[in-house]
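Dear colleague,

Following up on Tuesday's group meeting, I ran the structure prediction for the two-component complex that the binding team flagged. I've pasted the input sequences exactly as they went in, so you can double-check that nothing got truncated or mislabelled along the way. The structure tokens for the whole assembly follow below. Feel free to forward this to whoever is handling the docking comparison.

Inputs:
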Amino acid sequence: MTHIDADIVIVGSGAAGGVLAATLAEHTRARIVLLEKGPHYTGRFFTPREWDMRVLYADEGRRSTDDGAIPVRGGECVGGGTTVNVALSFDPVRSVWDDWRSRYGLQAFSFDATANDYGVAGLNMATCLAEVRRRINVHTPPDDAVNDNNRALENGCRALGITTRRFALNMRECVRCGHCSEGCAYDAKQGTLLTYVPDAVARGVQLIHHCDVGEIVMEKKGGGLQAAGIRGRVRPTVAGSQPNTVAAGALRVRARLVIVAAGAVESPSLLVRSRHPDPHGTLGRGLVLHPSLPIIGLMPRELSNYQGITGTVYSDHFYASHGFYLECLFGHPVYGSTVLPTIGPEHFEMMLAYRRIAGFGVMLVDSVDPKNRVEWDAVTGKPRIVYRVAESDKHRLRFAARTGIEIMLAAGAEEALLPSEEAIGPLPRPRFRQAAEARYCQELRFEPHRTTITSAHCQATLKMAEDPRLGTLSSRGESHAVRRLVVCDSSAFPTSCGANPMLSIMTLARYQARRIAAEMARYES
Amino acid sequence: METRPPLWATADAVTAAAAPSRRKFLATCAVLAFAAGCRSIASNSRSTYALIHDPHPDDYRPIVRGLIEAVLAFEDPRFPKVRVEEVQDRLLALFPLEAEARYVGLQKAFMLFDDVELFPDPALPIVDAEGAAVDARERESAAALAAESRDKVAQDRVLYETFRQGQGTEARFSRLPLAARRHYLELWGGSAFVVRRQFYGSVKSLVMIAAYSHPAFWEAIGYGGGSFQPDPTSTR
């Protein structure tokens, strides 16, 4: 049994936890313990073999919705999602934060760079965003970094008068190998693994990985509940990981402040396991996960799209009107072979054309439905993700599919297809040779296990809202029901943050950490 | 300090959960009887047999082999020079069906799948799982669930008729000729039952992962991405 006395314990070392630890270490003298469920792999461990690298993902990449229909990707290693994502860095979408202010009563979060939120000098979203962008080197790569696949999306959009943009990416001296999702073997991707976590450790934060946090310890105090630390278990260190800072076995950390930053699947699960009160049925409810639909094209010539920076081009043309993005993406053969439709000779024919395949994805900003939720399943010992695409979202997704097919054909594809085996109109499968056929996308039903929809952006399962009936957390990220407990990650968003979430999460974490540092007295009395 | 057992101590939870799941099974039988109009007792006892017996590896290995041949395209001259046995060995190495308890459900699903004649009649575990999947969202009445099951059974029977017209009377998937095996697997992929489609998707994933994580397949499709190694001399 390892027993640690600390001031602050942070659960999760991803986009949120890494930034929280480093920022709190920078602005306070608190003794901080940073806990991570996954191993501590570094660049030397990462290889381009996608199957081997499944160990970087939650449930070894098998996590999905409860009906198995939507795979839900999430990083589970030091750095979390920032270790396995493709470095897409969207600034927080200001219109969304304004919406949260009006509908969920969110306070502060000023985007004015001269604002002093909570009376703290220099505390505002604009400053926090600028600091984060600087630390992780967010920049737009030069034109020669755009590979054929991204060029295809750009060309197809241009032919149809659809605007495109270039992604901002958090990289430094990228060698363009195309294996972001297997972890950056070249230490180019500036996730928290390489930035904020080492910053935190250098400032004395104790990092404990391989750590299953069983529950938050809650004590009765003054007629209410108060978090007093965590109880968990440290697993033996697996091969390939950096050594741990404590021995394997039971772990108890006492702390004056518990910060949960384990992501929108694990954070609500931890609160449920800890018997966090849920008087208004908000805990885990209202999950959004950005359902994504791959659009696949068979081009007339070889492109070798598995090489080069995965994503450099996207379109937000339909964001305001229909709430979706078109984002360039590409898969390696394991992912590709499972996503491509059908079996046998028809499937093999597509695999033979692998070097000619182009791909991008529709990423839908989905709406909040309280029936979509994360539960804790004590029988399996795993979170249970219950999610069905809402009918109104399917309507938008049909339009997005149609648009995507039209773009792919306009980009010069001989054939465009969806990862689906549904029959639509006269087509036995959604495989299209002419733009006129794209209208049959109106008949897509998006049936589970007949059409592949993917997800990597779970959010909004705890929700900040000043009214406890709308969310589990206040604008400070503090639990409405338990003192000295803060949740700060994508689960704290009231709805989708309106873009790929990494930079929104990191900015929120920087903001909350600076606020906590200035308001430590709130957690001491 | 409190002494209550933590919720996340799963070993006890598994034991505790066994009893409710037995109750659920019995409830499902009632729904099923309603759905099927109590017909086809013989095939239901065959599916029940498959449900309660843990299959021996010798029972499902020919089925796995048949599935690998159906999912991949060994007959294509451009297919990599890899034997079915090699893909099967790799699949069983990546997914140790025989060694790990979590695969017992999949083993049983293989046995149910193999019994072609069960397809037009609702097999107990399929209706059971379907009920749970449909139920996950909103608790529906047993009557509504039964009506939905009846509808799905009717749809799947139409699929089965098209299959039988082309493929004769063989009762075991593993003994069907290749084209018929593919057709039968596609029946599952096109089934009205979500759980049957899930089986199709799971099988496809297992086989594709076993194949396309292997360098022989990279060569066949011209994929050069997995072959390079990061420079070991780089400083990290």
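Chain B has a mean pLDDT of 75.

Cheers,
M.
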